[in-house]
Amino acid sequence: MRKRLLGALALSILAFSILIAQPLAAQTPAVTLSAQLARTETELRAVDRALDGRVDADAQKALRMRALAAQQVAKDVGAALDDQITLLDARIAGLGPAAPGVTEAPDITAQRAALTQQRSALDATAKRAGLASVEAQQLVDEIEQSREQQFNEKISAQAASPLAPTFWQTLLASLPRDIKRVGLFLKQGIDQIGSARHGLPWQALLGLVLGFVVFLPVRIWARALGQKVLVEGAPGRRVRRSANALWRVIIGTLCPLLAAMIVMQGLRWSGLLPLRWAGMGDAVVLATGFSAFTAAVSGALLMRRQPSWRIAAIDDETAARVRPLTWILAGLSFGTILLSAFDTAIGASQAAQVASQTLIALLHLLLIATFLLVLGRLRAERSAKDDAANGTASAGIGIVLLVVWVLVCIASTALLLGYIAFSLFTAQVIAWAAILGATVYLMTAAVDDVATSAFTRSSRLGVTLTRALGVRGSVIDQFGVLLSAVLRLVLVCVALGLLVSPFGGSGGFAAVFGRLGLLAQGIEVGGVSISPATILRGIVVLGIGLALTRAFMGWLENRYLPITDLDGSGRNSVSLVARYVAIAVAFIWALASLGIGVERVALLLSALSVGIGFGLQAITQNFVSGLILLAERPIKIGDLVRVGNDEGDVKRISVRSTEIELADHSTLIVPNSELITKSVLNKTMAGPLGRIQIKFSVPLDTDAGQVRAMVQEAFASDAAVLDEPPPKVFIDGLTEGRIEFNCFGHVANQRAVYAARSTVLMTLLDQFRAAGIDIGTVPQRLELIAAGTDLTPHAP
Asked: Any idea where the DUF3772 domain is (predicted)?
């Protein structure tokens, strides 16, 4: 462990020195660059010679880092030489070629020759640098292939089944020798302690005391102090919760780790940790740190004793039942690391190592199965209740649990068949994925809380940006949401890269499934390989693409679009276009995973264009009309429109049809082509105001001024009628001895017209009845004419 840390520190110093020297590379003399390149070539030859023999995983990592560092140096040297060659070319071009028939000065000729010779030397060195970079990349690829091959061999190796007698016979046969190795390990350590220790081991005692103080009192005090500071000074409840969770993880990991390091260092200084046991001491520190991290992350996520500080949407009962399992997982991680280190330290036999791996895999699988059973029971109990707050888990959680159950069954079957390494790898990846997932959840929540709290229009930073730079508040809100999304995406990508790295899997699951894919070669049709593996891969890729599309649309509709300046219809248009584009990209990605390129998709669409033109003409017309509606937006969601004899509110606009809710709460589905090619009355396109129109007539001898005042009073008495624009009362004409009035008033929206008109009419009826004013239409007169009467009009 110490050698690894020193090696990593040396490589970090080398990389840091390269980064520092990079800006000055253009000013480095050519002789110095050539010397650096020579050392790089020597380093690459040394790496190449080291790869000729059998190299373990740790040595391969070190050789890979050396090759990468040499490649970076070669690239830097090549870049510096290219800059110098560019300067020389400019100087040579400034001198120009020798003119034929013209005798030039000897110093010009000598300078041109010297520059040309210097350029040739630099060009040769630059080509050497390029070749060295290529060789370094080849060495890195060779190391990666070797690591992948070793990983695949380790995963696919089969031993005797634990159910077979051979397994136990081999273990019992090697047991006496392993017992001797354990005794020799203990005896050599005790002998070294006896020869090195003198007097009272006060260093060890002091280390134990300090370790206990750091582990318990300091950890409790630091946790309480951090929570107190956050309560008093952190802005916003969300930021306080996230910061408290991360602080608990940091303190819960660092304090036990420092305590273990202090105790081990005290044992070393007192001579109680001999060189023979040094590896076990390092393993204790590593196991303590990892198990403490596991317990701290799970504790910060569950918050069993402080539910008000809990970030995740977990009820108290779930936190109480799951928390003991996380402690068992932390203890199992501690024991796994110590057992592996002990096998390595004593040089245990192959049978003992296989037995240890079998035990570790079995314990992991039992713990994972117990965790799944507990979650299943909790889901069953919640589903039996009618309380909406205790509803069942989401479909995504159910799918994840189902996948984990399948993996547990596969790992258990592999364990029984003798594929111990594969079973252990699968179980440890599941456990590590749970720990990593909890960590990523906490970090993404913290990143989202900090980004959206710092970059908001109401924060101090937002107010400063608005006042100093004139940035709109919505732009600041959008930047905070986008920054949160980018940072969370980076965290997820890093987590995916770390998923299998602790177990030596350079290729990860891709390497495992790559080997399994060789079992079914399939057939090839038109240059496309069709096999169960490719079909399954296409389905998986399509599922992942649609899941990412759903997640992206959820973020777009719930987080980003609500903080923009777009109205509801604009957000709907952006959401629809983004949804269809994302789905199209998901399908193209799935086809690409099957080996069907974009050019073949375009050829297929060209072949189908004739059929689309004839058979799907109406659908295509509606689709294009929908795109026009979304782009031009003559009709928006929420508009009150009249299509033919039907009038209602626009509720949804898709690329094929538009849904209109009528007054009787029924839904009218109108094809988009009808809205584009025919007349549509949009009552709210120009503005939301609605107009009330009232027409009536009174006798000719009625006081028109009095009627006008009554109408204005009726409009003013209704709160729904607006004062601006003011109501208007007009005399429309004099007909058949009556005065015809035409009155107008305005309300806030079109949907309030009918009720306001009814209220005003009722008021007018009461007022006219009280004043004795006859209101109505022109009276009709019925005359009875005797039979035989001449009805022909006569001239006067």
From this structure: 127-186
Which value, to the nearest 10 degrees, does the dihedral of the CA atoms of residues 443, 447, 449, 453 take? 160
The closest of 296, 219, 300 to 253, measured between CA atoms, is: 296
Are 698 and 725 part of one and the same domain? yes
Contact (Cβ atoms closer than 8 angstroms) between residue 270 and residue 227? no
Question: What pLDDT shows up at residue 410?
Answer: 94
Give CA–CA dist 656/629, Å, rounded.
Answer: 10
The counts of H helices and E strands in the chain are 23, 10
Following DSSP, what letter does each residue of 690-738 receive, concatenated?
Answer: EEEEEEEEEETTS-HHHHHHHHHHHHHH-TTB-SSSPPEEEEEEEETTE
**pLDDT for 267:** 87
Residue 357, Cβ density class (10 Å: 0-12 exposed, 13-18 middle, ≥19 buried) = buried
Same domain, 624 and 705: no
pLDDT given at position 16: 39
Give domain status of residue 434, yes or no. Answer: no
What beta strand segments (E) does 527-645 contain?
A: 528-530, 640-643
- Cis-peptide, bond into residue 256, ω within 30° of zero: no
- CA count, 13 A, side-chain hemisphere, 118: 19
Handedness of CA 680, 686, 692, 694 (dihedral sign): negative
Using CA atoms, how far apart are residues 428 and 432, in angstroms rounded to an integer? 6
* Residue 327 C-beta-side C-alpha neighbours within 13 Å: 7
Biggest CA-to-CA distance, the chain? 154
- Residue 38 lies inside a defined structural domain of this protein: yes
Give the residue numbers spanning the domain of 672.
599-682
pLDDT of residue 151: 75
121 with 72, same domain: the answer is yes
CA 505 – CA 514 distance, rounded (Å): 13
- Compute the distance between CA of residue 771 and CA of residue 765 in angstroms, rounded to an integer: 10
Q: Which amino acid is at 779?
A: P
Q: What is the DSSP letter of 241?
A: H
Residue 15: predicted pLDDT: 41
Rounded distance between C-alpha atoms, residue 53 and residue 492, angstroms = 38
The secondary element (H helix, E strand) that includes residue 443 is helix 420-454
Nearest by Cα to 290 from 241, 238, 363, 341:
341
Based on the fold, state whether residues 26 and 55 are members of the same structural domain.
yes
pLDDT of residue 293: 95
Q: Is 111 left (phi over 0), alpha (psi -120 to 50) or beta?
A: alpha
Residue 17: per-residue pLDDT: 41
Task: Pick the closest to residue 593 from 518, 522, 510, 535 (CA basis).
Answer: 535
Distance CA 91, CA 93 (A): 5
Tell me the residue type at 331. Answer: G
- C-alpha closest to that of 247 among 263, 233, 227, 228: 227
Beta strand 738-747 pairing with 690-699 = antiparallel
Among candidate residues 569, 571, 589, the one with its CA nearest the CA of residue 579: 571
> How many angstroms separate the CA atoms of 633 and 442, rounded?
42
The edge-to-edge listing of strands for the beta sheet with 690-699 is 690-699, 738-747, 728-735
Q: Residue ranges of the chain with pLDDT lower than 50?
A: 1-26, 386-393, 506-521, 778, 791, 795-796
CB count in 10 Å sphere of residue 317:
12
Measured CA to CA, the distance from residue 239 to residue 231 in angstroms comes to 10
> Measured between alpha carbons, how far is 709 from 338 in angstroms, rounded to an integer?
97
Q: Which amino acid is at 222?
A: A
pTM exceeds 0.70 for this model: no
- C-alpha closest to that of 702 among 778, 763, 779, 768: 768
Nearest to 477 by CA among 551, 552, 554, 561: 561
The CA dihedral of 320, 326, 332, 337, to the nearest 10 degrees, is -160
Tally of structural domains, the chain: 3
Q: How far apart are CA 514 and CA 501, in angstroms?
A: 18
* 3-state helix, strand and coil shares in percent for the chain, rounded to the nearest 5: 70, 10, 20
